[in-house]
Amino acid sequence: MIIGYHNSHEQFPPSELLELVQMAEKFGFKAANSSDHFNPWIEEQGESGFAWSWLGAALQATSLPFGVVCAPGQRYHPAIIAQAAATLSEMYPNRFWVALGSGQQLNEGITGDKWPIKTIRNERLKESAEIIRRLWAGEIVNYQGLVQIEDAKLYTRPTHPPKMIGAAITAKTAEWLAKWVDGLITVGKPPSELNKTIKAFQKGGGKGKPVYIKLAISYHIDEEKALKDAYKQWKPHVFANYITTNLRYPQQFAEISKYLDPEIMYDELNISTDLDDYVELLHQYLKIKVDHVYLHNVNTEQKQFIQDFGENVLPHFNSLKEE
Hints:
The protein has helices spanning 14-26, 51-61, 78-91, 105-108, 118-136, 171-177, 191-206, 223-234, 241-244, 250-257, 265-268, 275-287, 302-312, 315-322; strands at residues 2-7, 31-34, 66-70, 96-100, 141-144, 148-152, 163-167, 183-187, 211-219, 270-272, 292-297. The protein is α/β, with parallel strands linked by helices. The chain has one domain: Alpha-Beta Barrel (TIM Barrel). α3 (78-91) crosses α5.
């Protein structure tokens, strides 16, 4: 199981994230992934750097493999995603993967286009994925559907196209996309619940394909600080995905969550000062055959997290890989 570092563009300026991911590599993280936002979730986070510019710099500044989760079809035309991913893969062979999801109105709503219902967004996602694959194959692509494209050909292509990973929160979506993606990325639910999503993915055609998770935690040497900062930074995520996907503005996320009790974060995140707790948790994901775990420490204290995990958590798993 590969353990990577999650780069949250909503929470940190890109210059700081570049320093953090270099530090993460130094302390033993074996991979990295990136969010891709136009808006932060809430105003307090205060950032939203352009992920694709940053990814070129991060791939150059480290030797890590990288991935990004994005939503083609509205804010990005799929041809632009195809071109961006192909360019990074040509420069950094076998070090980049792209995950495709149906998106959130928070980011996609900036175009002013109607925000479709989930079934339409899924149809648009599949059309976009097909267009991207055809462009990577060197075809001249014409398509008229929920996505439109005319006489598009991608001239700069890598020898091997990047992996196309499907982003899914629910078991139903994981099963639906399993046949036409190269792997699954989902959130780090409790292992027993996550196992249901993995089995649904395998049932739909994903057997043998890798599983990636983004695991949200709040680690700090001071548990009160870990809780308070997690509450400040990540409290809107206690709500179901079908709610948060359809909100348009950061202020709405703040409004729906302002009366939450901070203690609720214990139900939604892994919050602990004990590094052995995280070792045990990661072993549980290893047992259910998760291939990649991207740790997202949702509080703002990143350097202590990177150092402490690098010295006390990652060796338990990096040594297994080396053996």
